[in-house]
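Re: the request from the purification team.
They wanted to know what the chain is likely to look like in 3D before they choose a buffer screen. I agreed to run a prediction and write the result into the notebook, where they can find it.
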Amino acid sequence: MRVIEVAAGLIHGNGRYLIARRKPGVHLAGFWEFPGGKRETGESLAECLQRELLEELNIHIDLPIPYQIVRHGYPDKIVELHFFRCAIEQGEPVPLGCEEIRWVFPEELTQFRFPPADHAIIQALQRDALGASR
């Protein structure tokens, strides 16, 4: 079974995270996600994330910091999601490659429908926020 590597950005600012809703007609259409995309041949995961966020949101980010890796099996493929913490260095996010975007607090993430592969990340971000508030 083929493994698809994906870089996803946990873009943070003012205590919130940027999430994006997938466009109609694509895999997992209508679900919310942390923006990013598939790694292309010859690029690092950090380069992939920087390219994808420029293409999808028209933003430049600071150096992505590895956060967590999640492997999730679908009937026809395995997706390996590499989540990175990052912040916007330049630009204002615009939903070019997605249906819409929102800034949400960690405790609000469970109010949105995310793919199953993202649930562990949401729980980790909520734990991090809880620990930081104590």
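For the purification team: The chain has a mean pLDDT of 94.
Please add any questions underneath this entry.
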